[in-house]
Amino acid sequence: MGFEFWMFLSLVYVSHFHFHGLSLAEKAPYYSFVHEAAMAPEVSFYDYIIIGGGTAGCPLAATLSESANVLVLERGGSPYENPSKPDKGNFFPNLLDVSPSSYAQEFTSEDGVYNARARVLGGGSVINAGFYSRAEPEFLKQTGLNEALVNYSYQWVEKKIAFEPSMLQWQSALRDGLLEAGVLPNNGFTFDHIYGTKIGGTIFDGDDHRHTAADLLEYANPYRIKVYLHATVEKIIFETKVFSRTRAQGVVFEDELGKKHWALLTKDYKSEVILSAGALGSPQLLMLSGIGPSQQLKKFGIKVVMDQPLVGQGLVDNPLNFLLVPSPSPVELSLVSFVGITRFGSYIEACSGISFTPSWSRSVAKALAAILNQTEQSSTKLFQEGILNPESLLDTRIRGGIIFEKVKDPISSGYLELRNMNPRDNPKVTFNYFQAPEDLMKCVHGVKIAIDAVYSKSFSNFRYEILSAKALLELIVNLPLNQRPRHLTSAFSLEKFCMDTVMTIWHYHGGCCLGKVVDRDYKVLGVEALRIVDGSTFTSSPGTNPQATVMMLGRYMGLKILQERYFGKYRKK
Predict the structure, then answer these.
(1) Superfamily of segment(s) 32-163+209-316+414-428+506-567
(2) What is the pLDDT of residue 442?
(3) Residues tagged active-site
(4) pTM surpassing 0.85?
(5) Exposure letters 179-208 (e unless 16+ CB within 10 A, then b)
(6) Binding site, annotated residues for FAD
C-alpha cells in the first residue's frame, strides 16, 4: 500500500473522531436534515446527488457528507413516523400492505410470482426479515474489493444496527434438526459466511425493535446533507457536447404535490449523480433518462442519450420454496435467526409465530382442514378463531413456523423492460425461474434437507405426527402463493413442487451488472459523473442475505469516492 492509501486512512480516522469524538451527529429519528420534498427549492446545487435513500443510499450519503454537500432523494416516506410499524411482529403485514403509503410496492413478475419493492427511507432493511450475515470470500474476490476496507466498512455498519439474536425453543429445535439432517458443523454465532449451520446477526434489538439503514444517517454531518422524502426522480439530466463524453448534470424530481424541482451538480468536475435505487429502480431510471436499449427507448419516444443494450439484462431472483409446519406446542415470535449453509448451493432459514392477513390465514386453514381427516380437525383450532373473526387475525400469530430454502447463485436469469414512462410504476420484470436444470436440482436437494430437519428427533415437539411430508407439500400446493399453474403431481414430485410453488426471497439483483453497465469503480460506462452503487450491480447475491453487504458497499464506496475527490484516482489494492 502506497502513500495515497495511508493518507486516505488518515482522512477516515480524522472524520470518525470529528463526528463521534465531538458528538456533532444527530440521533434517529430526530434528523433535522430530513424533509418532505415539497419543501425543496425549485433549483438547488450539490456535490453529490444520490437517487434512493435505501440500504446502500443511506450509508453512502452519511459517508459522503463527512466532506461534501449531499442530497438524497427518496421516493418513499420515513420509517420513523410510526416507530413500531417496522418491528418484528409486523413483518408480513408490512410486506402484504398494498396501501399507497405502504413501505413495500407490490408487483408480479411476468413469471407469475408475487414480489415487492421497498418504498421507504432505509429501503429493504425496513421490510426484510432482519438477518445480518456477511458475504462469502468468493463474492469479494469477484468484485475486486479491498479486504481491509471491506472489514472496516462492515464494522462501521455493525456498530449501529447489528445484534446477536435470542435463540428460543422453536428456532433452537429447528437448528438442531438441521444439524441432524447433516448441515454440519455447528458454527455457533458469527457474522461470517461459513459452511454448516450458524446463528447469524439480526437488525432487531432485544425489544424486537428494528434498526435500519436509515439509522446509519446518525453518522452524517447534519450541516452537509439534505434528505427529501416523497421525491420521485423523473430523469437524470445530461450534457452532451461534440467530441466530449456525455456527462450527468443533475436530476429532475417531483414532490408529492406534483411540483417539479431541479437538483444540479456544482461546477466541481468531481461532483456526481449516484444511482442507489435498487435492482428495479436503477435500470428503470437509466432507461427513462435515455441510457438503455435504443429500440426500447424509441418505442416510448425517449431521446437516446446512449445506446446500452445491457441495461436491464442479467436480472436474477433467488428462488424460494417453503414448508409451513403447524405446531401442537406454543411457538415464539421469531424471524430468521440462523441459517444452514450447504455445500450444494442451498440456504435453509426459518421463522415462527408470525402474523398473516385474514384472507391468507383463511386459505391456510381451509387447505389444512382439507388434508386432515375428520378425527384430527381439532388440530386446526389454531386457525378457528381467525375463521370466525377474520379481523382478529391482524393481531393473531399463527402457531407454527415457515421453513424455507433459497437457491444460491441461480444460473437462470432474466431482464427488465419499461412498462411505461411513469417512474412511479414498476417496470416489467421477467426472472425465468428454474430455466436452468441445475437451479432446480439445488431446490430439490434443499427441500429434502428442510423435510429431514422437520422430521428430526430434535424438532419432534413442534410438528403434528398426523402430518406427513406429503401432507406438508400438499398444504403448500393448495395455497395461493403465486399465479403459476399447478401440476397434478406437485405434492409427489419435488421437481414439480419447486416449479409450481416458487416464490421470491426478495433478493433480486442485477440489471446494471458490474463489468457490463458499470466498471470496477461503479462508474457507468461511457458516461461522466454518474455511478451506480446498489444491488443492481451484483452478478450474484452476496452471502445468505444481502443487506449486510449492500450497506457495507455504501460505506465502502463513499470512502473510495472521497479518496478520489481529495487524493486523485484510487487504486483497488
Answers:
(1) FAD/NAD(P)-binding domain (3.50.50.60)
(2) 98
(3) 507
(4) yes
(5) bbbebeeebeeebebeebbbbbbbbbeeeb
(6) 74-75, 120, 233, 506-507, 535, 546-547
